[in-house]
What does this fold into?
Amino acid sequence: MIVCARCEDILPGMKDDSVDLIVTDPPYGISFMGKDWDRAVPSVAIWRECLRVLKPGCFAFVMCIPRQDCQAKMVLNLLEAGFDVSYSPLYHVFASGFNKSMNMSKAVDKRLGAEREVIAHRDAGRGLTRADKRNANEGFEAGHMVYAETLPATPEALVLDGSYSGLQLKPALEIIIVAQKPDTRKYRRSDVYAMLGGKYAYWYTSEVEVKDETESDRKKKAKLEEKWGREFEAGDIIERRLALDPTLNDEMILNRAEVLWSRAYKDSDITSTITAALDDGHGITWLDDGRIPCDWHTDPTRRGWQGKEGSPGGILPFERRPKNPNSHGRFPANLLVSDDVLNDGREYETHYGNTEASGYANGSMFGLGAKGVSMASKGSFSRYFSLDQWAIANLPESVQRTFPFLIVPKAAKKEKNLGCEGLPEQGGTAGEITVRGNTNPVCQTCGGSMIDRGAGACQCKEPNWKARNKPHRNAHPTVKPLKLMSYLITLGSRPGDLVLDLFAGTCTTGMAAKTLGRDYLMVEQEEEWCQIGKRRIDAVEAKLC
It folds into this structure.
């Protein structure tokens, strides 16, 4: 469902504990592109309402730019509202950001009224000069930003050449703040017994294995024998179990057979994340579904450690088996990479089991042969954190076939405009100098821009103005990538769950939820974005049918 209204007006009417996951890209409080809706981060009151409607133990994934002040405000408001924010954020890394710093040398020349000498025009999208492209018989492609390379015109500007205002670095990542609604529910033994349908009689709470391999093990074994007044063998297992069935007793048992100690049943509190997860599946994240696919291959020429029998002369008196990597991929990290941005040109090979690649000749620490098979993967460093590979492996085949744009780092034009085919284009055509989303077009004759009146300003008598970017039918300035929202929804929910986005924009969250079989509630105050969002979700539904 898409609701066109302010979230402050919608949230109070929602039921308590009715939402399974919040995924949202709220205002950052930086007045982005001069927009009024971005003047402040969401208030504590808004987050308190979100906490109320979220089910106990459930999560909220909140987008934020990496600016320290914005992060601090967002986190403090979430904390004051009652969320648990004691988690590492996720970092989405991409290569398509652009810097917004003021070039101080150019700014000084502009203020002093000095005209800078233009020595070249460059296409920021490709890094090629106009001459380069002319020699290659290529024209400038629409959509690439063109800028002029100039020289300082005054001594004052020359001193400051290469400097920029503040520390406005090129953005290369987005931060996803992780917040959880604390689960204050309590569970007693009788609750768990009923929850499990009376199928399980005991709740196991501790386990001790008797060992005698080291001097420390033997001391612990002696203490156990003194405590229980009997002898134990290496490998014996002592367990404590609490009775769930009120007709049974609490017990300490040996090897699931002999009772060492017993006492009467007591309906005590056994609240834990485990009991909450058994109750309704909340308070957890589905991290195996977020594993990053990896092309494991086996190499029978590489040997892992065999263990005790293969250890010559007792040099390795302990057993160690080769590690067994999960066939579904690498465990999720708090870093998500798009567009292979960590590729430094080298190929990295990771091995599981101790091999030559780990610095152990012939597969053992001392250059001695041993049995076992190594597993390995190869590729650039990006593969450890590749959101692109996750999307290819986990999104429905129909989505992969019909939405090839899913492999791009940020939301591409095709992804933004999906379902908007009947809407007028916005963002600039010939003759449109100031249009929504594009207020600084570039002259296609000389490469100078309209607003940058310093270096690079158009010097032509009859400028041929074109928008810097290709026109869009979806002109929303901050459209999120579908695969990123799909990843977050997969981590935090199951099919049939309700996903809420209280700052929905053009409903990328809703598109991802629909694709993955979740229910969704998208709240957006701008009618234009709501209409585009509806078209986009309808287009997804049509593709999936």
Notes: The radius of gyration is 31 Å. The chain is about 25% helix and 20% strand.
